[in-house]
Every structure is written in C-alpha cells, then in structure tokens.
Design brief:
alpha+beta, Ubiquitin-like (UB roll), Translation Initiation Factor IF3, two-stranded antiparallel sheet, 5 helices, 8 strands, elongated
Length: 224
C-alpha cells in the first residue's frame, strides 16, 4: 500500500486500507493489480483521471501523422506525363509526406522489368535534393514499388546586418601610419679601375611629425 505522498505503508488488510483512505477523504485505487500482493495507492481518483487525459492529449500532439501518398507510372510513359507526375511527387515530398511510387506492368510488359527499374532510378535522381529512397525498388506481382522519404529541410539562417562603414576624418587620417617610401641613393665604390657609381633602393619609413606643445606656466594671481 502506498500513501498519497508516496510513503510505503507496507502490506495492509483491505478494511484497514479503506479506513485510511476514508480518513484522508480520498480514494483507494489499485495501481498494480497483477502484482502479488496487489498494490493500491491513496489518491484523488478524479484528479488521477484528469491527469491521465492530459498526458494522452500531450502524447497525441507530439505524435506526427505520416501520410503516404502514391503515384503510379507505366513502363512506357511519355516524357510529358513523366514530368507532370514527377512534379506532383516533388510537391508531396515538399509537404512532408512519404511517396510510394508504383510501376504498373501489363501483359508482355512483365517480361521487361528493367524498364520499370529504369524509371524508378531516374525518379530517385530527379528528387535527390528533397528525398531519399527509404525502400529500394522491388517487384510485387504485376507492380514494382519504391518508397521515398522526404528530407528535413534546414531553415535558412537570418543574415546579420552589415555594420555601416565609418567615414575617414582628419583625426583618424593622422593616426594612420604612412606607407614606407623608396629613396634612391648613390654610392661610390672604389674598385681597381676607379670609382663606380651604384644606385641602391633604400626603404625609408616616413613617420609623421608629432606636434610638441610647450609648457605654459600659470600666471600669478593678482595681488600676489
């Protein structure tokens, strides 16, 4: 026997268990009838029924109803009918439904199952961006079937707003280090035959001059 707060009360005779439930102004509910001995709990039975209904409703909301659509093709289907039916298959997949594709054979067409397999392989390639083959093509009597399962489409991420470009100001321009400039210097190298002029390219970094502010002494106060 279990109390309302979950406390284990041990094995109690039925009259005593009923008396404890009446004293608590609650019900004695059998929660495990197949156990030996059966397990009962003191609770509000109406509240228990309400909670069970709410749990069933929540489970039904979370359950996804999968609908299987069917599209039928013929082994000798023309290109126009194939395009129309394939667009319908793509629509079903885009709505989140599974699609069962059936190739129907008649008469002598049963001797050429490769025609149906060719159509199914072509269809699987045409919808590869929105679906995957859940059940591979298989022969089922006069029909050949294949099941397509829709792929989960990822929602596009919102684009981040671009930061506005800051306009250059005189102050910011002064802080930019100027690009190094190249200067040409002439050097005279004394050789055995005489002096030879050599031009060298020297990389000189130009640094802007800093403005020096002179120290200004405070003026003495009047009357000092």
């Amino acid at each position: 026997m279990i109390a309302e707060d979950g406390e284990q009360l041990g094995v109690r005779p039925l009259p005593q268990a009923l008396q404890l439930a009446r004293e608590a102004e609650l019900d004695l509910v059998e929660v495990a009838p197949n156990a030996k001995p059966p397990v009962c709990k003191i609770m509000d039975f109406r509240r228990y029924q309400y909670e069970q209904q709410q749990r069933r409703k929540e489970s039904r909301k979370k359950a996804t109803n999968v609908v299987v659509k069917e599209m039928k093709y013929r082994p000798k289907i023309d290109i126009h009918d194939y395009t129309t039916k394939t667009k319908k298959v793509q629509q079903f997949l885009g709505e989140g439904h599974k699609v069962k594709v059936t190739i129907m054979f008649r008469g002598r067409e049963m001797a050429h199952p490769e025609l149906g397999r060719k159509i199914l392989d072509r269809l699987a390639g045409d919808v590869v961006e929105v679906a995957m083959v859940e059940s591979a093509p298989r022969q089922d009597g006069r029909n050949m079937t294949m099941v397509l399962h829709p792929l989960k489409q990822q929602k596009p991420k919102p684009a981040k707003p671009s930061k506005p470009k800051q306009e250059a100001t005189p102050e910011s321009a002064a802080q930019v280090t100027p690009v190094a400039e190249l200067e040409v210097a002439e050097l005279e190298v004394a050789g055995a035959d005489g002096a030879v002029a050599v031009e060298l390219e020297l990389e000189v970094e130009v640094v802007p001059a800093l403005e020096v502010v002179p120290d200004v002494e405070p003026e003495p106060a009047a009357g000092a």
